Amino acid sequence: MTAVHFVPMPSADAAAYREGASDAYGLAPEQRISPGGYPCRHCLGPIASGEPYLTLAYRPFPTLQPYAETGPIFLHAEACPRYEAADVLPTMLDSPDYIVRGYGHDDRIVYGSGGVVETQGITKRAEELFSNPEIAYLHVRSARNNCYQCRIERS
């Protein structure tokens, strides 16, 4: 059995966006007030009702290439602690299911690795996928909108 851990966006990225850095499309993050429940990709927890948050285009890949998906994410507008309970399913993953998909060492999708998984089965599915040595890491994405949630790595 392979141990896994859930990885949020890097703190340096979160801080840069909060300071006005351009997103993946070269735009400034949009700031709004949360109606409650939006998932922060840094603390991997919910953004409470009434809290300011940022919406921005995020590309969780090191370089541009055909598989480097970009999409909208939410982030607390004010500093929040980076998610540290790495082997525990993040509280923000509260939908019934998510897409779990494997990527190779070249940051390309490993075909046949993606699928919709019930939330309580994410860790088990990650362990199964990591038995394939071609898979370097996984993404957890929304099963409804394909939005990036977090990364899973081998421990």
Could you describe the 3D structure shown?
- The chain has 155 residues and is mainly beta.
- It has 2 domains: 10-76, no CATH class; 86-154, no CATH class.
- The protein is built from 2 helices and 10 strands, in the order E-H-E-E-E-E-E-E-E-H-E-E.
- The strands form 3 sheets. It has a 5-stranded antiparallel sheet with strand order 1-10-9-7-8.
- A hairpin with a 5-residue loop joins strand 9 (137-142) and strand 10.
- The chain is globular, with a radius of gyration of 15 Å.
- The mean pLDDT is 96.
Short description:
Helices cover 10% and strands 32% of the residues. The chain contains two helices and ten strands, in the order E-H-E-E-E-E-E-E-E-H-E-E.
Strand order of the largest sheet: 1-10-9-7-8
Radius of gyration: 15 Å
Tally of contiguous helical segments: 2
Shape: globular
Secondary structure class reads mainly beta
Mean pLDDT: 96
Distance between the termini: 11 Å
Secondary structure: number of strands: 10
Total tally of structural domains: 2
- Helix residue percentage: 10-25%
Q: Tell me about the biggest sheet?
A: 5 strands, antiparallel
How much strand? 25-35%
Extract low-pLDDT stretches. Answer: none
Following the backbone from N to C, one meets helices and strands in this order, namely EHEEEEEEEHEE
Protein name: DUF1203 domain-containing protein
Pfam families: DUF1203
